[in-house]
Amino acid sequence: MNKFVFVVCGGKEHIEELNFSLRFLRHFSKNEIIVLTELQRNEIEIEHDNIINIDTPSEFNNHQASIYIKTGLNKFLESGHTYCYLDGDIVAINENVDNIFDFYKSPISFASDHCKINEFSPFAMNCKCNEDVINQDKEFNAKLSAVFGNINLTDETLKKQSEELLSVFYEYKSKPVKNAINNFIYLLKRYILPIKAFKLKTYKFNKSDKCWYNSDERIVLFDYSYYEKKLWGTSGIRYNQKEAYWESKEGKIFEFKSPVCNHLTEYLQNQYHINIPENWQHWNGGVFIFDIASSDFLNYWHEKTINEFSNPKTKTRDQGTLALTVWTFGLQNHPLIPQEYNWITEYAKNEIRYEKERGYTKDGFKTSFTPNLLHIYHEWGTIGWSIWDSVVELEVKIHDK
Predict the structure, then answer these.
(1) With pLDDT > 90 as the criterion, what percentage of the chain qualifies?
(2) What is the pLDDT of residues 333-358, one digit of tens each?
(3) Which of 189, 221, 224, 277 has its CA 20 to 30 A from that of 341?
(4) Are 349 and 121 in contact (CB under 8 A)?
(5) What residues are paired with 375 via a beta bridge?
(6) By C-alpha distance, which of 229, 219, 311, 236 is closest to 272?
(7) 219 and 152 in contact (C-beta within 8 Å)?
(8) 6, 15, 16: which is closest to 41 by C-alpha?
C-alpha cells in the first residue's frame, strides 16, 4: 500500500505550514497520509486525524527532533508499505500527485536539488563563505546610500523587481516593431511631456531624480549614466561595463554571485574518505520514496546525521549527510524522481512564474511546465509572487468544492 508521510515538531509557523499543505494533499490524493511528530513539543494542534507520536531525545531542539524522526522514518513506520515523505512546505496541486509512487526505484528514490553541491556547501558548513557575501552586500549598499540615502539593491525582492523591469526594457528594445507603440509612449512620457513622473507596469519613474520606484516607494533601479560621475566621486564605485561588475576605487570587485565553496566536499573527504565532485548535482531531502529495501540506506543516513548534531564544523542539516550516504552506497547515478514531483520554486528567478492563462513556466514561458508538487521553500505566503498567488487561487477552488 502507498502512503504519504509528513514530519513536524514544535514551532507554530511550521505546523501552520503543514496544516495548509495537508488540506491540498487530502483533496488531491487517494492515499493514506500520516504525520509523525512529538506532540508535547508542538505549539499548536496538527489538523489531521492520523498522527503518530514519537519520543525524541530531550536534549534535541525542535529542529533536531524533526530531523531525528525524518531520517529514522523506517524505525517508526510499519513495514510492508511504500512511503513517500514530503516536507511541510510542499503543496500538491493536482490529482497526479499519487503517480509519484510509479517512480520508485529500489533501494530508495529522491528528487534532485535546485543547485550543485558546491552551491549548497555554504549552507551546510559553519564556514564564512555565506557571511562574506552578506558583508559584501552590506558594503555595496552602504556605498550606494551615500548618494541615494537608505537603499538596498541586493534585497531579494528588490532584485527580482529590478530584473522584472529590465526584462520589460529588453523586450521593448529587442522587438521594436512589435513594441512600436509602447516605445513611442515611453519616449513621449520620459523626454517630451511636462510631467513629473510616469508608470511602466507597476513601477514609477521619478523624472527629477531619475529613479524607478516600486509600490512601496523603494528604489529598484536608477539611471546609471546620470549618476555615474556622482557615484564615482561620492561613493567611490562604478560599474565596469566591459567586465560586467561593480568596482571600487580601492580595486574591490562586487559581483553578487551566490556563495560557492568546497568546504562540504573537503570535509566529507577528510572525515569519511568519500570523494564527491564539486559540481555533483546533489539530492534534495524534501521528497523521497522508500520501503523495507531502504532500511540500510536510512539507518546509515540517520546515524551520520545524528552524529553531526554536536559537530561545530557543520550546521544542523540532513542534506550534507544525505550526499555522504548516496556516495557511500554508490547511488550517485541512481534514477531521480522527475522535477514535476518536487518543483523547487525560487522566488528570485523571474523565469519561474505562473500566469492564469498559460499556467506555470520555469524558463519565462519559452515553454510551459506542468508540476504536480510545488516546493515553496522560501517566501511562503508572499502575496504578489505569482507562484504563491496560484496556490491561493487554487485554495479558493478547493474550498468551494
Answers:
(1) 90
(2) 999 999 999 999 999 888 999 999 99
(3) 277
(4) no
(5) 90, 344
(6) 311
(7) no
(8) 15
Which residues on adjacent β-strands are paired with residue 344? Answer: 375
Residue 378 grid cell: 522560501
Domains of the chain with CATH codes: 2-115+276-400 (3.90.550.10), 153-250 (no CATH)
Encoded amino acid at 41, one letter: R
Over residues 242-270, the pLDDT tens digits come to 888 999 999 999 988 788 999 999 999 99
The answer to whether residues 101 and 2 touch, using CB atoms and an 8 Å cutoff, is yes
Residue found by looking up cell 523565469 in the block: 351
